[in-house]
Fold:
Amino acid sequence: MRADAFSAWLSASAQRSKGEYALVLHPLAAAEPGLGEAERVLDLLLAELPTKSAVRLAAQISGAPRNALYALALQKKPDAQASGED
Structure:
């Protein structure tokens, strides 16, 4: 869950305000230099396709490294990873 969504999640149920929580925070990975156009292509594809397909096509179109695009896609679609969409 993203940190900006935690407040809404917490207030959605009175039971959630009881007890203790452990928060694990990760820094955002720095975007690879030179991914500007690849990131734009990835954004367009992520809007229409599953993450795996969008990354594969963005890598083929832009020539950017697939691993870097996949990491970027996971940053952009954290809910898809949590719900098991791909």
